[in-house]
Amino acid sequence: MKNKIKSVFAFLLIMVILLPFKSNAEKEVIDFGTSADFPPYEYYEGDEIVGIDPDILKAIGDYMGVEVKLHDMDFNTIIASIQSGKIDGGAAGFTVTEERKKSVNFTDSFAKTSQVIIIKKDSDIKEVEDLEDNKTIGTQLGTIGDTLAKDDFGEENVSAFNKVPDAILSLKSNKIDAIILDKHSAENFLNANKDLQIIDTPYLEEEYAIAISKDNPELLEKMNEAISALKKSGKIDKIMDKYQNSETSEESKGLFGRFKSTIIDNGAYKYLIDGLKITLAVTFFALIISFVLGLIIALVREANINMDTSSKGFGSILIKILDKIFGLFISIIRGTPSTIQLLIMFNVILVNLDNLMLVAIISFALNSSAYMAELFRGGINSVSKGEKEAARSLGLSSFQTMKKVVMPQAVKNSLPALGNEVITLFKETSIAGFIGLADLTRGASIVISQTFDAATAYFSAAFIYLLIVLIIEKIFKQLEKGQIYA
Predict the structure, then answer these.
(1) Which residue has the higher pLDDT, 260 or 273?
(2) What is d(CA 454, CA 310) in angstroms, rounded to the nearest whole number?
């Protein structure tokens, strides 16, 4: 028996000794942000982000013996996410500029390219100088092309877009006259938009590099060493050649033909379906939280209004304090854009929370709860004072009056406004892509990065949004009818 105990003890001791060696053998993970709607540098192929930047990062990771993890997010938020410590670096076709170097460090460049000008084939623009004739120029927000175009042609003549496909749509519909874009990305879009062309003279020659946090000089040094080795071995040149020579199919003719080829035949519908699932999940959980929180806020604020001013007990003081806090909360939420609230949650308040869906749920729930609170307060105040006094005269307590008389009528009276808030919340989740959550709108962007057909992808997403909104409207109409007959 003693020998068995000794054997077990020896086994456990060996496991304890070996555990540290096992953990050290596991690869270190480095997190990089990218914007997977910029082919051929980064885009989706199935569920995987592929392209020049992802392949180079993987090659660097293999050289360094580390695992590289990519996070898809809006281009304009990558540097902010690096600064907040959310990610270690960013690879999204970054041009090195003095302004950006104030915020992040950059590796040695790994690719040379140029910014070119895209125009319609029937345009009167023939060279760069023609853009000075009060032409409206489209750019991607936050890019070097955006910055220089505003300096060269004036901010009033530049329209900055969050997504390149949005700029392509505006050019095709004559809302802008030209687009400044990376040459390789421009060539991909032109393959699918045969009515567009690139003028012969480049707007700008540039070099791409990888952005690294200023707090991690060791990572910068190791990555520069890896880039140098990959250049010498010819690995980076092979990656560039692999993607620069890719071709895409021509535009399908006709609305149905384009829908069939873009959404059905390419299997792109799954991105819209997966995005819809995430959108509905975020909406559902945010709605539950905002409903409960909004109701609590409304009851506290109403309790403070109806409270006897002479009350000095602990409960009275607590309600007054909570009323002040909730009032300030509502003012802040209603006074700031929901996009800013989401980005603050992502980059500041919940910076250590890696679950993007949870970040979105919390942000949208807090935003909606402020409006829910005022909505419920309106419903409570719609119940006449006489009914409340009648209930009290029948011997009902304040709690019983609120539960049995006020709240049933308040909910009934609030149903139309509640339906509007649910629809608003559902549509507002479309900004979740700013933090990289693959919602329905982000799903449409992924489709565009693969097919380069922005119109079909956006119309498909819009149809899905409209369909869900019509279903929500139908549900609330039935609820209102039920309340009327009740």
Answers:
(1) 273
(2) 64
Asked if residue 217 and residue 80 are part of one domain, the reply reads yes
CA–CA distance, 369 with 333 (Å, rounded to integer): 9
Confidence of residue 125 (pLDDT cuts 50, 70, 90): very high
Are both 370 and 319 inside the same structural domain? Answer: yes
DSSP bridge partners of 94: 209
* Cβ neighbours for 368, distance < 8 A, ≥ 6 positions apart: 286, 287, 290, 294, 421, 424, 425
Q: What is the mean pLDDT of residues 213-222?
A: 94
Give a yes or no: residue 12 inside a domain. no
CATH number of the domain that residue 287 is part of = 1.10.3720.10
The SS3 call for residue 176 is: coil
Nearest to 89 by CA among 103, 337, 99, 97: 103
Percent composition of the chain: helix, strand, coil (DSSP 3-state, to 5): 65, 15, 20
| Selection from 184, 182, 172 nearest residue 123 by Cα | 172
Question: Does any domain span residue 10?
Answer: no
What local confidence, expressed as pLDDT, does residue 309 receive?
Answer: 62
Report which of residues 110 and 251 the model is more confident about: 110
Helix residue ranges per DSSP H, 382-433:
385-393, 398-401, 407-428
Claim to verify: residue 313 and residue 445 sit in the same structural domain: yes
**Phi and psi (nearest 5°) for 414?**
-90, -5
pLDDT digits (tens, 9 = 90+) for 269-278: 888 999 999 9
Q: How confident is the model at residue 368 (pLDDT cuts 50, 70, 90)?
A: very high
Tokens of 214: 């200023």
**393 with 464, same domain?**
yes
What's the domain range around 185?
112-205
pLDDT at 377 exceeding the cut of 60: yes
pLDDT digits (tens, 9 = 90+) for 44-97: 887 789 999 999 999 999 999 999 999 998 888 899 999 999 999 999 988 888
In a domain, 17, yes or no: no
- Residue 180 contacts residue 137 (beta carbons within 8 Å): yes
Q: What's CA 178's distance to the chain center, in Å?
A: 27
Q: What is the CA radius of gyration of the chain?
A: 28
Residues 452 and 356 in one domain: yes
Q: Which amino acid is at 443?
A: G
337 and 420 assigned to the same domain: yes
Tokens found for residue 272: 């819209």
Q: What crossing angle do the helices spanning 217-233 and 235-244 adopt, rounded to 10°?
A: 80
Residue 246 has pLDDT above 70, yes or no: no
pTM: 0.73
135: which residues sit within 8 A by CB, 6+ positions away? Answer: 125, 153, 157, 177, 178
